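Hi all, a correction to my earlier message: I attached the wrong file for Origin recognition complex subunit 5 C-terminal domain-containing protein. Here's the right sequence:
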Amino acid sequence: MATLPVSRNQVELPYYSKYLLVAAYLASYNPVVSDKRFFCKKAPKLSKRSKRTKKHERASNHLLGPKHFPLDRLLAIFYSIVEEKIAPSAIIFSQISSLVSLHLLGQTCSDSQIEMPRYKCLISLDFVRSVARTIGFDVLKYLYDFV
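and the right structure:
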């Protein structure tokens, strides 16, 4: 009997791994300067006029592809989007390792960056939207290209 290959759409993830994957996607496709705007409670809001002019001037991050991000940025975004308070634990770090082993995240680091690995999200917008839908999170509201 032949086995069928498992597609990424059929992967069932633990609850916090879904949030980690969404946070990784946001870290890969949003510029660092937008983090304060999207993830801080008292961030300054842009006026409608400045939104219009800046949207036409910038290049799409989705067309440029995913960018590498450090672990601390991933965790900062994760803790700001998750609904309840979570203490940093080995479980969270093991779930990040699981996402890497499932090839949903790519890990890049050099010998000089052993303490702070860098990651890159390897999933599509459609996949992250389906994952975000299962946890009731609207990912498009937090993506720089869609604001």
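Sorry for the mix-up. The first helix runs from residue 15 to 29.
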